[in-house]
Design a protein that fits this description.
Elements: H1 32-43, H2 49-69, H3 73-89, H4 96-103, H5 106-114, E1 152-161, E2 171-175, E3 196-200, E4 206-212, E5 217-218, H6 224-231, E6 237-238, E7 242-247, E8 254-260, E9 279-280, E10 283-285, H7 288-293, E11 302-306, E12 309-311, H8 314-331
Parallel strand pairs: 1-11, 1-12, 8-9
Antiparallel strand pairs: 1-4, 2-3, 2-7, 5-6, 7-8, 10-11
């Protein structure tokens, strides 16, 4: 194949995107403020109004930040290299950019703005970087964790609407770490999903499954996000938690987590995911016969986590989000 330098065919020439020169003149950027002004004028050409609004705000705040901090060329190049390494660290089973969003509080903030509290509904939490699409289907009462993954725990409850109606056939995706503080995707020799599963509620809206007691764990510290936390003097620990993602036709999808009481990191979670209503009790069940009845192979004792999940109808969830957005806009400083 010929190189671009060797070829004279039209196909191998560099091709512009086909957008014409703007029909107005822009002053030469001889001063720093002209750069911002020129870019904002060009963004006004954006055909999609929502995109235009987002880009104008993004540029305004980033340029203001650069001006206020007097970023040096070296500092900016370090930033570019850092973001490049964040992208290079991503893989099909590791999402370093989500992790960066998490530790900067962006994930929690976006979640909070898009899922305002609805009276009686279960609150949301951050998705985190370890969700996968390959969770196995499990039946009611089955285990999501392989034997030996941790201390026995049974999770049960009812999925219902804010009006009290049980929701049949709701899909529950759930995942957690093992007792070493690792998700299955963190193992290089991962052959199949573990400590994660997918199940459906029955006619009464009830669900139940075997799991293991989650433990506090450090988010990955071997990448650029880990370096960022060390540079800013922050620990990289998450309190112990169990992830739940619940979907049912006609209801707003809920992404949340349950956080057992007593963890040292509940109020300094590295990704700002804990909400007071999501902190739960684990009940000690010291009954060998009951443990075996619930399907735990070795019997003995287990922890019981009972939690009823309350979903919001999609129409009401969207109404709450719009009202919240209007209230924020009304109270925003001029």
């Amino acid at each position: 194949m010929s190189t671009p330098e060797q070829s004279t065919s039209e196909v191998n020439k560099a091709i512009p995107n086909g957008i014409a020169v703007p029909d107005f003149d822009l002053p030469f950027p001889d001063k720093s403020e002209i750069i911002t002004s020129n870019l904002l004028k060009l963004i006004d050409l954006t055909p999609n109004e929502r995109h235009k609004s987002i880009f104008k705000n993004l540029v305004t705040h980033i340029h203001q930040f650069i001006n206020e901090t007097s970023i040096t060329t070296e500092e900016w190049m370090n930033t570019v290299q850092f973001l490049t390494r964040v992208g290079q660290t991503c893989s099909p089973i590791r999402q370093e950019f989500i992790l960066l969003s998490d530790v900067l509080g962006i994930s929690a903030l976006v979640d909070s703005l898009n899922n305002p509290p609805v009276q009686g509904a279960t609150e949301s939490s951050v998705l985190g970087p370890f969700f996968t699409e390959d969770a196995p289907d499990v039946e009611q009462g089955d285990s999501i964790a392989s034997e030996g993954s941790g201390q026995y725990m049974y999770v049960e409850g009812t999925i219902k609407s804010i009006h009290g109606d049980p929701i049949e056939n709701a899909v529950i995706e759930t995942w957690e770490t093992n007792d070493h503080g690792f998700y299955d995707v963190q193992y290089k020799d991962r052959e199949k999903a573990d400590c994660r599963g997918r199940l459906r509620t029955g006619k009464d809206g009830k669900y139940g499954y075997r799991a293991v007691v989650p433990i506090a764990y450090p988010i990955p510290g071997d990448g650029p996000v880990g370096e960022l936390l060390i540079a800013t003097g922050r620990h990289n620990m998450r309190p112990n938690h169990l992830h739940l993602m619940v979907e049912a036709p006609g209801y707003r999808k809920l992404v949340t987590s349950l956080y057992p009481k007593g963890d040292d990191f509940l109020q300094s979670d590295a990704v700002f995911g804990v909400k007071k209503s999501l902190v739960v009790d684990l009940e000690d069940v010291n009954d060998d016969a009951e443990a075996r009845r619930r399907g735990f192979p070795k019997g003995g004792s287990f922890k019981l986590l009972h939690f009823d999940v309350t979903l919001v109808p999609e129409v009401e969830a969207e109404k709450a989000r719009e009202e919240f957005a209007q209230l924020r806009s009304k109270n925003a400083p001029a």
